[in-house]
């Protein structure tokens, strides 16, 4: 697993191989498998993302009753043409809700990179594929790009909310999605890394404060934020807007901020939104049900 985006950018320049291929070759070395098997495994993950979106149950609520049916509401608003963000971003929001709600409702999803942030990458990738008619093969390549970014973040920092707050989950997912979109839009390794940096910078310091300790509130809606943030970060990059702080330094900053966070806002369900009067009331009510 590569430990820096700078290294991946350097290898792309030296070998003339695309970012995704460099990541795939590293995966093959680590897993001890061939390129065809590696690609098939990654394609299976992408197809599982498609399945989760296509088989969303729009009438299902989570066991707690805290989340569910929001994806249906967003779809209806999009189809009615009432969204100021327009149809495309409406699709991104809808798919982010659908997948993250499915996680809360114990449906099959792909942790990308975590279950709590599972809606970001699928929402972005599936919407972009529908909009631009990219082939499945191209989308799998983008998934390698996203995986490479996630691998570097995992190596330099963390991906778990308990370790670094929600910036480590939604922030990392948003960075992964942004880099993948930059690749799909023709960006080289520098553009991929920059898009990831912009996305992660925007979410630095985000607390992990799940109400009642459940991956539901505010987690589901944060998937929407992460997905839309990924799109804007990719668009800024392709417009020529670059981060003043190098991508690896942004990841290091996320690690430093995460370590500085009080444990109450690192997935314990005690601080932040979980510690509000309403959050406490929900937690107590849920405790009485068990």
Give the SSE layout.
Blueprint: H1 5-15, H2 19-31, H3 35-54, H4 70-80, H5 86-104, H6 120-132, H7 136-156, H8 161-164, H9 170-184, H10 189-202, H11 219-238, H12 247-260, H13 277-289
Helix pairs in contact: 2-7, 3-7, 4-5, 5-6, 5-11, 6-9, 6-11, 7-9, 9-10, 9-11, 10-11, 10-12
Descriptive overview:
- The N and C termini lie far apart (42 Å).
- Helices cover 65% and strands 0% of the residues.
- The mean pLDDT is 98.
- The longest helix has 21 residues, at 136-156.
- The chain has a single domain (5-289), classed as 2-methylcitrate dehydratase PrpD.
- It is built from 13 helices and no strands.
- The protein is mainly alpha-helical.
- Helix 5 (86-104) runs antiparallel to helix 6, helix 6 runs parallel beside helix 9 and helix 7 packs across helix 9 (170-184).
- It is globular.
Helix content: 55-70%
Q: What letter string, H or E per element, gives the SSE order?
A: HHHHHHHHHHHHH
What is the β-strand count?
Answer: 0
Give the CA-CA distance, first to last residue. 42 Å
By CATH reckoning, the class would read Mainly Alpha
**Uncertain regions spanning at least 5 consecutive residues:** none
C-alpha-based Rg, rounded: 18 Å
Number of domains: 1
Strand % is under 5%
Question: Please, how many helices?
Answer: 13
Q: If you consult CATH, what is the topology?
A: 2-methylcitrate dehydratase PrpD
Main sheet attributes: strand count, strand direction, barrel closure: none
Q: Average the pLDDT over all residues and give the rounded result.
A: 98
Q: What overall geometry do the principal axes of the alpha carbons give? A: globular
Helix/strand-derived class?
mainly alpha
What would you say the CATH architecture is?
A: Orthogonal Bundle
């Amino acid at each position: 697993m590569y430990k820096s985006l700078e290294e991946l950018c350097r290898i792309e320049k030296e070998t003339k191989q695309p970012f995704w291929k460099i990541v795939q070759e590293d995966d093959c070395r680590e897993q001890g498998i061939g390129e065809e098997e590696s690609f098939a495994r990654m394609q299976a993950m992408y197809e599982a993302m498609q399945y989760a979106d296509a088989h969303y149950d729009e009438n299902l609520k989570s066991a707690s009753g805290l989340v569910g049916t929001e994806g249906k509401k967003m779809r209806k608003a999009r189809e009615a043409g009432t969204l100021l963000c327009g149809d495309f971003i409406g699709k991104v929001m809808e798919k982010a809700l659908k997948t993250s709600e499915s996680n809360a409702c114990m449906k099959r999803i792909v942790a990308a990179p975590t279950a709590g942030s599972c809606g970001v990458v699928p929402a972005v990738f599936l919407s972009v594929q529908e909009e631009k008619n990219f082939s499945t093969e191209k989308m799998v390549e983008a998934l390698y790009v996203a995986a490479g970014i996630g691998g570097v973040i995992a190596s330099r920092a963390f991906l778990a909310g308990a370790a670094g707050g929600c910036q480590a989950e939604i922030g990392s997912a948003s960075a992964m999605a942004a880099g993948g979109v930059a690749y799909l839009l023709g960006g080289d390794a520098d553009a991929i890394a920059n898009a990831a940096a912009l996305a992660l910078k925007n979410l630095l310091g985000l607390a992990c404060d799940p109400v009642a300790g459940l991956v539901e509130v505010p987690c589901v809606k944060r998937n929407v934020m992460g997905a839309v943030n990924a799109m804007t970060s990719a668009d800024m990059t392709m417009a020529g807007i670059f981060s003043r702080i190098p991508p690896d330094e942004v990841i290091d900053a996320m690690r430093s901020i995460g370590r500085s966070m009080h444990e109450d806002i690192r997935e314990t369900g005690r601080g932040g939104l979980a510690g509000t009067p309403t959050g406490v009331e929900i937690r107590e009510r849920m405790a009485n049900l068990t």
